[in-house]
Amino acid sequence: MSDPLSFLFGSTARVKLLRFFLFNPSKEFTFDDMCKRARLVRRTARTEITALLKAGVISSQMIEVTLPEKNKKTKVLAYGIDKKFPKLQALQTFLFETAPIDGENLLAHLKKAGVIDFLVVSGVFVREYEHRLDVLLAMKKLSPAKIETAIRALEAEIGIEIRFATMTSEDLLYRVGMYDKLTRDIFDYKHQILVDRIGVRDEMHRGSYRG
Questions:
Q1: Burial 88-109 (b: 16+ CB within 10 A, else e)
Q2: Is the pTM of this model over 0.85?
Q3: Quick one: which of 7, 54, 101, 194 has the most CB atoms within 10 Å?
Q4: How far apart are CA 1 and CA 102, in angstroms?
Q5: CA-closest candidate to residue 62, choices 70, 51, 73, 50
Q6: Which residues contact 2 (CB under 8 A, 6 or more apart)?
Q7: For the packed helices 88-98 and 12-22, what is the interaxial angle rounded to 10 degrees?
Q8: How far apart are CA 179 and CA 181, in angstroms?
Q9: Starting from the edge strand earliest in sequence, which strands make up the sheet with 58-67, in order?
Q10: Residues 137-150: tens digit of each pLDDT
Q11: 195: closest CA among 125, 107, 132?
């Protein structure tokens, strides 16, 4: 099904790019990286980037990057949200509210990867766009390839990058009990637990965990 907002904003590609930049407000992306992450063909991306630059929603500047194949640094043009855009927060809120970024949609995709023991969302799922992690998933038997496929399918649907981490259920309980950094990156900030079949909530309030 096509995104209804594509009729309002002119194209599905433009909606994807808007969400991509608005939900990654502190990052800048090269053209190639942006095309890859937003899953857009170069010609279409070039057209929409030009439109967004004219509208003042995004800006561009030269940044220094390292070329892996040549192991040397070079300067390239990069794009990012223009934080001086007067309606930035309103546009960000609107696009979040109209994007299928919710637990039900995430669960529908991830269930294809197997039985989920624990699932918590943070970051873009709770409107914390600067957060380091969006999803933490635990299963007794991990299927990395299936999880990756499910996450990438959701990314393509909503037009944003999802930062996620996976681990076995046993490992998660151990980490929560040890109050390690990865779990703190989720539980010390705004989050929402969607599935808990292994008692993570109980472990969070027992022993050394202070979240």
A1: beeebeebbeebebeeeebeeb
A2: no
A3: 101
A4: 17
A5: 73
A6: 12
A7: 120
A8: 7
A9: 29-30, 72-81, 58-67
A10: 999 999 899 999 99
A11: 107
**Parts of the chain with a pLDDT under 50:** 1, 208-211
Helix (H) or strand (E) holding 63, with range, is: strand 58-67
Query: How far apart, in whole angstroms, are the C-alpha atoms of residue 188 and residue 88?
Result: 27
Sole residue written with tokens 């009729």? 7
CA 17 – CA 96 distance, rounded (Å) = 13
- Tokens at residue 205, please? 């309030």
CA distance 55 to 134: 29
Tell me the sheet residues that pair with 157: none
Q: Which amino acid is at 104?
A: E
For residue 36, what are its two tokens?
């890859």
